[in-house]
Backbone:
């Protein structure tokens, strides 16, 4: 079958136009000040079932920094970006492993699935109580034994640091921020973050950490790569 070349030109032009306007924002989050030492999670250490799942002591993760005080687990969100549903985005996997939620901090788009797994040979439960009124119908309290099916959940409304917990092991927490656009990131262990394919324009970019609070900056995003660093204070 022969295809009229005119039908190939339009998609190519659209793809080229999208590539031309795609912009990235990258940066590093640095912590100012000396964070308090992380503490050994004595609840895990003293639990006969959970303690034996670890070869080393498990510590709190209040301020995760590297040798240069670059700060992980900061949720970076573009405010005022075009909103859209994340129903077709790849799910965020939240695992219960070693009597911890992994990752401790995550972020998803509204409508994006969160898949909760249980990789432990132990019984857990997934208890989520949203604070945003628009997410009330997505509250969940589901038992999840060893090798049990994954629990799937999504949220229709934005919400910061929505808490997941396990009532069987009350020290187990994870926090997931729900964003109404695809323009967000969570800083890595070296404090870096990247937000891709943002339409050029003027924005406020907000960086939030559970302990250090929230800081924001204005930026005019232009085609190509744009850099924006943040400094957060120990609190």
Residues:
């Amino acid at each position: 079958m022969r295809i009229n070349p005119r039908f190939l030109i339009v998609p190519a032009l659209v793809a080229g136009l999208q590539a031309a306007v795609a912009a990235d924002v990258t940066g590093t989050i640095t912590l100012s000040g000396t964070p308090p030492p992380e503490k050994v999670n004595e609840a895990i250490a003293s639990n006969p079932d959970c303690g034996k799942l670890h070869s080393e002591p498990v510590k709190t993760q209040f301020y995760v920094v590297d040798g240069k005080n670059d700060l992980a687990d900061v949720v970076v969100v573009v405010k005022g970006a075009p909103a859209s549903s994340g129903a077709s985005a790849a799910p965020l996997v939240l695992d219960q492993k070693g009597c911890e939620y992994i990752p401790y901090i995550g972020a998803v788009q509204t409508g994006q699935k969160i898949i909760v797994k249980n990789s432990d040979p132990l019984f857990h439960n997934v208890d989520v109580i949203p604070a945003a009124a628009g997410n009330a119908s997505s509250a969940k309290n589901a038992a999840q034994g060893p090798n049990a099916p994954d629990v799937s959940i999504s949220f229709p409304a934005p919400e910061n640091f929505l808490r997941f917990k396990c009532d069987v092991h009350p020290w187990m927490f994870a926090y997931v921020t729900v964003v109404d656009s695809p323009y967000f990131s969570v800083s890595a262990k070296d404090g870096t973050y990247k937000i891709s394919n943002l339409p050029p324009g003027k924005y406020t970019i907000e960086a939030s950490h559970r302990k250090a609070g929230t800081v924001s900056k204005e930026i005019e995003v232009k085609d190509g790569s744009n850099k924006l660093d943040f400094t957060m204070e120990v609190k």
In short: Helices lie at 6-21, 42-46, 48-51. Residues 7-19 have pLDDT under 50 and may be disordered.
